[in-house]
Amino acid sequence: MRNRGVELGVGIFMLVGAIALTVLAINVSGLSLTKQQDTYKIYARFENVGGLTARSKVTMSGVTIGKVSNITIDRKKLMALVEMDIDGDVDYLTSDSSASILTAGLLGEKYIGVTTGAADDEILKEGDFIEDTQSSLVLEELIGKFLFNQASE
Amino acid sequence: MDFFDDIIIDIKQLTFSRGERYICKNMDIRIPRGKVTAIMGPSGTGKTTLLKLIGGQLKPDSGSILLDGDDIPRLGRSELFDAREKMGMLFQSGALFTDMTVFENVAFPLRVHTKLPQDMIRDIVLMKLQAVGLRGAAELMPSELSGGMGRRVALARAIALDPALVMYDEPFTGQDPIAMGVLVNLIKKLNQALGHSSIIVSHDIKETLSIADYIYIIADADVIAHGTPEQLKQNDSDQVRQFMRGLPDGPVPFHFPARDYETELMEGR
Amino acid sequence: MAAIVNNLALLGRFALDRVAAIGRSGLILMHAIIARPQPLIAFPLLIRQLYSVGVLSMVIIVVSGLFIGMVLALQGYTILVDYGTEQAVGQMVALSLVRELAPVVTALLFAGRAGSALTAEIGLMKTTEQLSSMEMIGVDPLRRIIAPRFWAGVISLPILTMIFSAVGIWGGLLVGVEWLGIYEGSFWSNMQNSVDFFDDIGNGLIKSLVFGLVVTWVAVFQGYDSVPTSEGISQATTKTVVYSSLAILGLDFILTALMFGDL
């Protein structure tokens, strides 16, 4: 029957499309269904975010624990205010943690590296701030400082 | 004039124009019920347009077309849908749906307009195909038919719903003599057997005269003559005589309007 | 003086014709979208159109996807290897395919393969009076002929785009990993780190949906509005390919600016 062939063809077509989408989702974008979990927001102020963008990674000891969700200017202190979504199961960030903006490789993308401190008792929760921050390295400033030092010697 | 005691279509003061050109201007035509009426005229006088106006596919600028008292141009969508159930149309090219079998083509109007069960539709379709002598071709695709057979299938489709009015658009054009003879007989036979009214649009004089009960000749956007075939043969107007006898020159000139022949030739030097 | 007035009048008429054509195409689109066909009749029609529009376009999509993925990997490798970052080939192939090349190239191929066929088919139906006779039987050809073809195009193109992306990335994998010897782990991990499902694949899907709408709209309209002669159909087919290609490229710029402009 000719009609049956048509239906079969369309069925295969739809299935292949669905498979392609699944492959793209899981293999290419690394979307995993288990990763859809709660996150909580913490904030940090930086002198200079220099190239950090929304969706940049937040890592601890090189392991991704969240991502940057928003970057604005804190109007009172006139510093960059970075909002981060931290995975819900990360419950070991202490209040004396420090956040620094790092670069992956020499020319790579910027990301935030978090290191915890010694205080075990105060764990960061939704809306808390990381006070100890280290800004992005800006190449021009480094060169400027270097030249200034040279001149003053 | 006993023809017009009972009329199925009454066209009054119909005007339709395309751009600047009038296709018909204040035209009056009456189609008697149960007869074969022919509308004749030279090519390009808008005979096909007239059929489309009757079918409600085009809207006239002014005037009315009454089908059993319903004014076609003023019908709403669903009323028009119902009115079209009463009409069958045979298109010039047959216009069979190329992606359906012959059977499905004839069944199409039945499926659209009726909620009959499958086996009844099958019986009706086979009856209609039998009437045009193509029951054996039911499972063929339209592309496998010859031109004449295609037109017969289209005829079967046009009469599938037993319409009160069947319109034929140039049914004889481009047919070989055998197919033409078959069609002429078929149109006449079906008209008598089923009792519907027929409108034939054509410029094939011999065939049309042989089956028409009444004839309208149109030219220059109006009816120039009408009457029975006998009356028209006696008509002594130049225009009618030229058309009926197929003379090359007359009121419809052989030459396309042009400047003076001699002047134009001399100009080239 | 008279010549100038004449030309102005011509220009005005041309402009009015264009505007009227846009109006007609809009009406057809409205009609096709609004038409709520009876599901029992419409579903088989849609399946049939999905077959001729979607399934029959699959071969050309798979083959071109494969080659474009392979070429991307090859080109990317020769550039990236100078910076010692050839692991980024995976990321480059995936991003350029998913965001840009798959929607655009698939849509262009689709316009040439399926769009022109749609126009020719509908134009031929018009020439052979099939549309008229359908109307005389009391069936709206916009519903019965145009709507299923329109929806089949809108559904098919995103599916074809996904297939194109997947096959293209596989082609990139073949060249990058199997042939040029990039470490497979970093090929995938770089890709997964940079490709976001919603921002990249999702936006690519939205693009292809928009392209599907535009290409089938143009194709269907050109067929329906064609001059019913053999010359008219050939002109309409050419117009379909030209107009939809231009529309795809123009819209791609606008959509890209809207979606990725702020990054």
UniProtKB/TrEMBL annotation, chain A:
Gene Ontology MF term list: phospholipid binding; phospholipid transporter activity
Name the UniProt record assigns to this protein: Phospholipid/cholesterol/gamma-HCH transport system substrate-binding protein
Transmembrane segments: 12-33
InterPro entries given in the database record: ABC_MlaD, Mce/MlaD, MlaD_Phospholipid_Transporter
Organism: Amphritea atlantica
Domain Mce/MlaD: 39-117
Lineage: Bacteria, Pseudomonadati, Pseudomonadota, Gammaproteobacteria, Oceanospirillales
Domain of life: Bacteria
A family per Pfam: MlaD
Keywords: Membrane, Transmembrane, Transmembrane helix
From TrEMBL, chain B:
Record-level Gene Ontology MF annotations: ATP binding; ATP hydrolysis activity
Entry-linked SUPFAM superfamilies: P-loop containing nucleoside triphosphate hydrolases (SSF52540)
Family annotation (Pfam families): ABC_tran (PF00005)
Sorted UniProt keywords: ATP-binding, Nucleotide-binding, Transport
PANTHER family registered for this protein in UniProt: INTERMEMBRANE PHOSPHOLIPID TRANSPORT SYSTEM ATP-BINDING PROTEIN MLAF (PTHR43023:SF6), PROTEIN TRIGALACTOSYLDIACYLGLYCEROL 3, CHLOROPLASTIC (PTHR43023)
Keyword Glycoprotein part of the UniProt annotation: no
Record has 4Fe-4S as a keyword: no
Xref: PROSITE patterns: ABC_TRANSPORTER_2
All residue ranges annotated as the ABC transporter domain in the record: 9-245
InterPro entries: AAA+_ATPase, ABC_transporter-like_ATP-bd, P-loop_NTPase
Protein name as catalogued: Phospholipid/cholesterol/gamma-HCH transport system ATP-binding protein
Signal sequence, renumbered to the chain: none
Automatic annotation (TrEMBL), chain C:
Protein's name in the database: Intermembrane phospholipid transport system permease protein MlaE
Compartments it resides in: Cell inner membrane
Keyword vocabulary terms for this entry: Cell inner membrane, Cell membrane, Membrane, Transmembrane, Transmembrane helix, Transport
Similarity field: Belongs to the MlaE permease family.
Bilayer topology term: Multi-pass membrane protein
Its biological purpose: Part of the ABC transporter complex MlaFEDB, which is involved in a phospholipid transport pathway that maintains lipid asymmetry in the outer membrane by retrograde trafficking of phospholipids from the outer membrane to the inner membrane. Probably responsible for the translocation of the substrate across the membrane.
Principal subcellular localisation of the protein: membrane
Subunit details: The complex is composed of two ATP-binding proteins (MlaF), two transmembrane proteins (MlaE), two cytoplasmic solute-binding proteins (MlaB) and six periplasmic solute-binding proteins (MlaD).
Xref: InterPro entries: ABC_MlaE_roteobac, MlaE_Permease, Permease_MalE
